[in-house]
Specification:
There is one protein chain. The chain has a seven-stranded parallel sheet with strand order 3-2-1-4-5-6-7, with helices on both faces. β2, α2 and β3 form a beta-alpha-beta unit. The chain contains nine helices and seven strands; from the N terminus they run βαβαβαβαβααβαααβ. It has one domain: NAD(P)-binding Rossmann-like Domain (Rossmann fold), CATH 3.40.50.720. Helices cover about 45% and strands about 15% of the residues.
């Protein structure tokens, strides 16, 4: 087990906040990096993932580093499972849910670039179901708890692909554009309840999942790095942990409906 220790001595500015991170069970993943950072900052972290073993592994890492965490198997495309997971979290930690990170997503396969009219209806629908409807389901599940406490932070993971446009990958790019529309609209709707909703848009990130998907297209790493403003390296999952902490903390209390690009200066908006 690898335990991240670079946050030893952090001021724990999320102390006793309760956070749900969906898709948190990956190895060398954005979700895992966020879980570890939140745990180091004192949050109680619920690691949700359709992969129960992965969720348990990351929860154990958070606890091994001195944090408080629990693992919950959850398919975010099932509303009943989302509601059950939210209830488990609230029941375990004083009825609270302070932070929801909608990170779980489906990416597909790199190399499967196809014209827009060659994607099947099933491929299109699955992408939208996981990447957009899953966020709606999780927020529906967490909302009653945030509304009751008159405060909450929701962080939705979009993608820089929306800002650059990626031909041949329209179902994914469209789903991540949907996340931004969802963020803007639901942020307006929930402001009266003290709930802030923002999005993070990562660039091409060297997570284990991405490395596996691009194992036959390694030139993609160089292409992306050369287009960035910051050229010394590619993006890694830990690059999202700091921005995700900022959006969960009181420092961003006057921000809502916004999208923060974290892609090394590849895109601007």
């Amino acid at each position: 087990m690898v335990v991240v220790d670079q946050f030893v001595g952090t001021p724990q500015r999320l102390k006793d906040r309760v956070a749900i991170v969906t898709g948190g069970g990956g190895t060398n993943s954005i979700g895992r990096a966020i879980c570890l950072r939140y745990g180091a900052e004192g949050a109680k972290v619920a690691v949700l993932d359709v992969n129960s073993a992965g969720a348990a592994r990351v929860a154990d890492e958070v606890k091994a580093a001195g944090g408080d965490a629990m693992a919950i198997a959850c398919d975010i495309t099932d509303l009943a499972q989302c509601e059950s997971a939210a209830k488990q979290v609230a029941d375990a930690w004083n009825g609270r849910i302070d932070i929801l990170v909608n990170n779980a997503a489906f990416f597909g396969t790199m190399g499967a670039w196809k014209p827009f009219n060659e994607w099947t209806v099933e491929e299109w629908d699955h992408m939208q179901t996981v990447n957009v409807r899953g966020m709606w389901f999780m927020l529906r599940a967490a909302f009653p708890y945030m509304k009751a406490q008159k405060y909450g932070k929701v962080i939705n993971l979009s993608s820089s692909t929306f800002f650059q446009g990626v031909p041949g990958f329209i179902h994914y790019t469209s789903s991540k554009g949907g996340v931004i529309g969802f963020t803007r609209s639901i942020g307006k709707e929930l402001g009266e309840f003290g709930i802030r909703v923002n999005a993070l848009a990562p660039g091409f990130t060297l997570s284990d999942a991405q490395l596996e998907l691009t194992k036959d297209a390694r030139a993609w790493y160089d292409v992306n790095r050369d287009k960035q403003s910051i050229k010394e390296r590619n993006e890694i999952p830990e690059d999202l942990a700091g921005p995700a902490f900022f959006l969960a903390s009181e420092d961003s209390d006057f921000m809502s409906c916004q999208t923060v690009l974290v892609d090394g200066g590849l895109n601007m908006h």
